[in-house]
Amino acid sequence: MSNRHPHTVSHSISSPKAPPIMLDRTLSSRRSQPHLDFEFPSPAASSAVSPVPESPTSLADESKTKKPPLYLLATNYISRFGLVKSPCLCLSLCLLLIVFTLFSLLLNSRSFVCVSSYDPISRVSLFGLDGVDSDFGSLGVPWCRSKHGKTVEWTSKDLINGLEEFVPIYETRPIKNNLYGMGFDHSFGLWFITRRLKPDIMIESGAFKGHSTWVLRQAMPDTPIISLTPRHPEKYLKKGPAYVDGNCTYFAGKDFVDFGSVDWEKVLKIHGISDFSRVLVFFDDHQNELKRLKQALKAGFHHLVFEDNYDTGTGDHYSLRQICDQFYIRGGGHSCFKDSDEARIRSKRKKFWEKAVDIDELCGPHEAWWGVRGEMRDNFNHNKTTISYGEHFQNSRFVESILDVYWELPPTAGPSLTHQSRYDPGRAPPPIVEDGRYRMFQRLGLDRLERSVFNGYTQMVYLQISKPESWKYPESDLV
Ligand SMILES: C[S@@+](CC[C@H](N)C(=O)[O-])C[C@H]1O[C@@H](n2cnc3c(N)ncnc32)[C@H](O)[C@@H]1O
């Protein structure tokens, strides 16, 4: 399949000729996490989306008790003295107010200067004294729009309850150091999504030593798995920990077949599966996600999870996040102008967040910022195809035309809690456990985990595909 000539959706939308520029005002925009209705589109819908059993809710409620900043408290307090007649007292109170205000502003101000995440003084200037309020989403968080604005049914409370349940499970993982594989955030995300969907079978593309197979197994103890991965996880057992599942069909080693070349009807029939809307497909194989999406659509799958949903300018394959980074989305579309606000802010953030990209890294030849410097990357960076902005734009129109749900997993917790210093919060949705909520972090058991497990967040995404009847392009385009 050629990726150079993506689909043209039948409702023609002319693509802008010049790359659009992200407006500076979008730099400070935030995207709220949508929590609307979502149903598994099958007759067994009720069992498919039955909620995770409730666990104590006190942890969730605690997040609502965020303390107001000091200067606001001081202002409110002093305003009560409005009736005081003494000029001396009034003057003293005014001075006190000014001192309080300056002190509080100082503590709550955010600077993007070069600071180390382990330096307490720098952390105070970045996060404030109590560590609250880092700047999630301040650079904008692009996302793929769905046709009807549908989203998932789960809430942040469900995510918190899920964390409480998952931490002890994660602590029993067989592969403790999963370098190059999933860390905590995405392990939780995959487990949580799988538990909510309750599929009849799970397909995984890209298993490495088998950690993600183990996560799927924790979510669904009796459900079959099909795993496609060039090297069988058992091969890793010779050198150290790995996970091989007893109820998993491996297309690995000499039996390896790429996801796009499998006759899925035939394979799933062997497993007694005919309803493809009851299948969950998980991709962690570092392939162009547009290619994988088209292959999944062609096969008839509806529920997809992509592990590495890289931000624009980063990663080794074209991702959904990159595809939907468009000027009409908050935080989408970029300017390669070196004196722009975006360039200035990015260069400051780069000094603090390892994976942040500055404008030089973001922009390739001819000011091409989309994908990675104007390239659609594939297969661990082995294939790089230069695409025009028009092609990139059409890719997003195509994706949006077949989507019912696009949901990015939020990071587990703010960096003042996890001490992660890799992903840039400015490009991420607000975390499940906000900065400053140390007691909640502790109560969920997250403080027991090594810091390094929080370093792998790359915006894992869950996609629900709409019914083919509503697609607005010929299915032959999928070939
Ligand atoms: C990042 S690792 C997967 C990590 C794993 N999911 C985990 O959580 O530990 C990527 C894996 O994709 C495999 N891979 C490479 N090409 C692939 C392909 N075409 N299809 C499926 N897997 C592929 C690699 O061999 C590697 O095992």
TrEMBL record:
Bias category Low complexity: which stretches? 39-56
Outline the segment boundaries, as ranges, of region: Disordered: 1-63
Chain coiled-coil ranges:
none
Q: Does the keyword Transmembrane helix apply?
A: yes
A single GO CC term for this protein reads: endomembrane system
Q: Recite the UniProt keywords alphabetically.
A: Membrane, Transmembrane, Transmembrane helix
Sequence intervals crossing the membrane = 88-107
Instruction: Give the protein name, as stated in the record.
Output: DNA-directed RNA polymerase subunit beta
Gene that produces this protein: LOC107897491
